[in-house]
Amino acid sequence: MFYLCVSMMFLMWLFVMSVFHSSLGQNSFLRAYSPGNIIIGGLFPIHLKTNRTNTSAPLSLMIYAINKINLPNITIGYDIYDTCGDVGLALRATLQLLKNQSDPESCLVPADAQFKLLEPKTKVVIGERYSEVSIAVARLVALSSVAQISYASTSELLSSKFKFPTFLRTVPSDKYQTRGIVELVKIFHWKTVIIVGSDDEYGKYGSDSLQDNFNKKSICIEFVHILSADFTTNNNSMDQTELNELLEKIQNSSAEAIIIFTKDTNAEIILEAAIEHRVNRTWIASDAWSSSSKISAMSDIKLAGEVFGFIYKQKEVPGFKDHVMSMFNGTNNTILRDYQTQHLLSLNKSEEERNQYLASYIDQDESYGIYIAVRVIAEGLRRLLKCNDHLCERSSSFTALELLSEIQKVNFTENNTQIYFDSDGDPSLGYDIVYWNRSDCNKSMIIQTIGEYSPDGKITDRKILSSLLVLLVFLFPSADSTCKHCEDGAYSHPEENTCLKKSDDYLDWEDPFSIILSSLAVVGIIATIVFAVLFAVYLKTPIVKAVGGYLCFLELFALLAGFCLTFTFIGKPTEKIHCVGVPLFGIAFTLCISCILANLLQIFLGFKFDLKAESWIKKLNKPLVVVTIISGIQLGLSVSWLTKEPPHPDNKSLDYTILYNCKIEPHTYFIAMLVYNTFLGLICFLFAFKGRQLPDLYKNASLITISMLLFVVIWIIFLPIYLTLTGKYQPAVQSAAILTSCFSILGCHLAPKCYIMLFRKELNHERAIAEYIRKFYEQKASICRRCAQRFRSRSPIIKISRQTRRCLHEHAFQHLFIDRFSHTVVVRIQPAVTFQLTARQHNSRESTDVKAARRDCGCCSGAFASPAAALQTTPRNTH
Predict the structure, then answer these.
(1) Among 190, 339, 460, 643, which is most exposed with the fewest C-beta within 10 angstroms?
(2) Three-state DSSP state, 438
(3) What CATH fold (topology level) applies to the domain 174-286+292-316+432-493?
(4) How is domain 512-763 classified at the CATH fold level?
(5) What angle do CA 521, 524, 525 make, to 5 degrees?
(6) What span, in angstroms and rounded, lies between the C-alpha atoms of 316 and 120?
């Protein structure tokens, strides 16, 4: 249900996006279309900034393979779009393919659907090339149960059937490639390697997988370098500096192989720099650039050293080049026509020369993957429609889900290779291992296949590999040092052939961040103690009673505990001291908020309650009971946390350090603690906000409103940061959030009271409060008299008793205290002053139009809450 809700929200966003971009129109897409009984969709990055010179070859091969499908009395059509390698355009194109199911123009299901989604005419989609684009498309097509078969997306994330239930691919997952790279390193007996990745979906996950596999095989990783996601050296001094540092580290290292697991543009930049700096090493290429014709044709590429790589299975598709020569006849293919006429290398050439140019740039690895994708669809259709060479027993009317089910079951042989999908939607195909042969020095490198890596973990055809092994040992002998396998807590130093102990990494006391946090905590502790002394000295004064009397000492104690708990986040984590900081803070801050809430509740009930429910109110209006109940709930939650799933010290072994922290998993109790405190903060905020119109000499309500708002905002910002942050500064963020919360209460709620005690002593007297209240209600009275005059002028239509009218003139300001649902109210302005207002009911009936009059005079609405007319006021002092 959760997945469905998320998917529907995602679909709604896509529709909004499609409407936003509707000005581009459908004609803005470059599209190749051919009608048929069954439509196969296609998504290809034709126009994009790339080093590849053959971006239209995948599209051409898909059309060729579809035309080869031979189903009796059934025509297979296609609808292919140019995505430009962009997620947004790919999603818009996907919506076009699924347009029979929903109407992107109106964002509504078609009227004739009758609450049932129509089956899309496109039954299956081939594409996209890039993993990040395929992930977005896969989420969308899954809503319609349309199968998606990618020919080049290798991200390991796409193997999750829970997230991508309709996704399949004809290329292996990156997890097989990384295992193959490790096996290749083992064959050549290399003991130390360097990994260069990138901070994107392809490079980051691939680098992490390589590290895991190398660690399992006890192969040393000298260092791992992750390039930024948008790495480029064009007019970017930071990236140029990063590149220079990387080349310097490689040049000074003793690693025997450098693995570059990133996209081709990054690999090109690194190898250009390697040639420039004369860095001659052995490189291992990932599938993203191992067959790059541009990189292999770079000037002086031989100076960079030896290059091995992994690519998808390379097999030539029979008859495809002949098809390229005749592919422009009779089809509405704007993509190929645009490519043929606009490509720089084919301008000013005859049509035959242009076709020959296109045919000469066929990316065999991707082409074979697309060919297999179409063959899989054909086999699925044969199984579904029960076709033989002459007849299909079933018509072309079927659901996309039925075709998906049959595609997942296919098992056939193509070019002596068995084709089938496993439970993750990954194919049975493996990788080809290639070597950049530089035997011909006058031309670019020749990319030669030297072996195969199958998904079962075996490398075959080792004859060529053995020959290369002898050659490499002779030409490029390994470094004299060896990489020693070390125990946990140590790492190998290749130059010294010894194991060095990993350093401990945690938020220590000498860290600048720790010094700042500790200093702020000490300031908070001193300020809290000073405030407590001042409140004790002025305990009997009105201002201390205004903040709850003895409750303020509980509040200060809770704040003092919060400041002291800051120190539990600094230093090497221990179970008894450091890992209890967060649960104890939850208890302390709940105590603090409960004191504020009890004080606000006491004032609020003093203004609003009904004397008929006086006994019930007295039971509720007990501050100590309120504090005990509210804090007891948090105490029970924290005790349950500490007994069932307590935070505990944990360590994570990194390359050269061991990271120590307090592990909080699962986050259920932690989030529950924060949600409870945030809920209490919101209640305080609401009470304080409702009391903003009451006479408040000390601005208590306004200051509490500000402090609670700060608290809530701080923890709303903190939670996502904490859940995503890793490293030794995670506890520092926790400590900073606690300090900020404590200072918000101390500075906004309590500090102004201390200022009045010391510098505005004239306000800390009952006579100042009484004078302030008198002026406050005199101002209100003048407004109410004007409203009463308006009511008197309406006497022909509103019947108000004479006694009520007299009271409006003489005691109009006192009417403000009448509750809409009460007749007698005791109003507690401050703990020191109480006004008792008594209303007597009269038998006279007032006009029902009084309700209309109330709407016209909001400030006096309380005066007409009941038929009450006469009011008496008796001021008295009370404690």
Answers:
(1) 643
(2) coil
(3) Rossmann fold (3.40.50)
(4) Rhopdopsin 7-helix transmembrane proteins (1.20.1070)
(5) 85
(6) 33
